[in-house]
Amino acid sequence: MAAPTPMRVSGVVFSAPDPRSLAAFYQRLLGWPVQKDEPGWVKLAAPDGGPGLSFHEDPDYVPPVWPSTAGEQQMMVHLDIGVDDIEKAGQYAVELGAKPADFQPQEHVRVYFDPIGHPFCLFLDR
């Protein structure tokens, strides 16, 4: 059954107790401009016109445990970010406030946590 109307993914939304500060981290990391900034909501625009990233206020946000652990908050989504130099990109992410995960599953992928614990992956994209 086809959708009754065209549907487009406009963005991925992350919960945060302070959406502005988390949006500022990703704005610096990715170099994306702020498209919308209003109380409890910030959206970054993808420069290529693709889906953006949004951040909404959630005072009860609980960071996920990764790798997954039974009975703990599970990761619901994460970003895969392609880079040309994984070491330089990782150093930059850490300078901005990211933390590397203890467990690294693959040689060409590095898992990090943003400042409030959302995991994201840097991978060689060449």
TrEMBL record:
<dbReference type="Pfam" id="PF18029">
    <property type="entry name" value="Glyoxalase_6"/>
</dbReference>
<feature type="domain" description="VOC">
    <location>
        <begin position="8"/>
        <end position="126"/>
    </location>
</feature>
<dbReference type="InterPro" id="IPR029068">
    <property type="entry name" value="Glyas_Bleomycin-R_OHBP_Dase"/>
</dbReference>
<protein>
    <submittedName>
        <fullName>Glyoxalase/bleomycin resistance protein/dioxygenase</fullName>
    </submittedName>
</protein>
<dbReference type="InterPro" id="IPR037523">
    <property type="entry name" value="VOC_core"/>
</dbReference>
<dbReference type="InterPro" id="IPR041581">
    <property type="entry name" value="Glyoxalase_6"/>
</dbReference>
